[in-house]
Design goal:
Layout (H helix, E strand, L loop, with lengths): L7 H21 L2 H14 L18 H10 L2 H9 L16 H14 L6 H16 L5
Helix pairs in contact: 1-5, 3-6, 5-6
C-alpha cells in the first residue's frame, strides 16, 4: 500500500475544515456583529451605501456579479436535484437561515462543498442576490 498517496478522506480534510469553520462562524456570529464588520469594511473602501432596507453585510455587494455567478454555477439545477420542483423550496427564510450572516455562511458552504472556489466578495454577492430574491432580511 502506498502511504504517500492521500486517501479520499485525507485529501478532503482541508475542504472539510474550511467548511466547518465557515458554518461555525456564520452560526456563531450575531447578525449585528456581522453587519458591523461589513459596514466597517465598506466604509474603509469608500463604498458605503445609504441606510435602507438592505442588511449592512450586503450593502456593498455587486448584485450583477451575484446574479451572473448564480447562473454560471447552475445553482438552480443543483437545488432542483436536492429538493425537486423548481428548486425554490431550498430557500426557507423561516428555517435554518435566520440571519444575513447565516445566509452568507450557507453560500460559502455551497461554494466549499462544490469546490467553486468563490472569493469572499463573490460569496457576499451571491448571498445578496438570494436575500433580494428570496429571504428579504431587512437592514438595520
Amino acid at each position: 500500500m502506498n502511504r504517500s498517496a492521500p486517501t479520499c478522506q485525507t485529501a478532503r480534510l482541508p475542504a472539510l475544515l474550511r467548511l466547518a469553520a465557515a458554518v461555525a462562524l456564520a452560526l456563531a456570529m450575531p447578525a449585528s456583529a456581522a453587519e458591523t464588520a461589513a459596514s466597517a469594511n465598506a466604509n474603509s473602501q469608500g463604498n458605503a451605501s445609504p441606510a435602507g432596507s438592505v442588511p449592512t453585510i450586503f450593502r456593498a455587494a455587486d448584485l450583477a456579479l451575484g446574479a451572473r455567478l448564480l447562473q454560471a454555477n447552475r445553482c438552480s439545477e443543483c437545488h432542483v436535484r436536492k429538493v425537486g420542483g423548481d428548486g425554490n423550496g431550498i430557500y426557507n427564510p423561516k428555517g435554518r437561515i435566520s440571519t444575513p450572516a447565516a445566509l452568507r455562511g450557507m453560500v460559502d458552504l455551497c461554494s466549499t462543498e462544490l469546490n467553486l472556489q468563490l472569493f469572499p466578495d463573490e460569496v457576499t454577492a451571491v448571498a445578496a442576490v438570494l436575500n433580494r430574491d428570496h429571504y428579504r432580511f431587512a437592514g438595520r
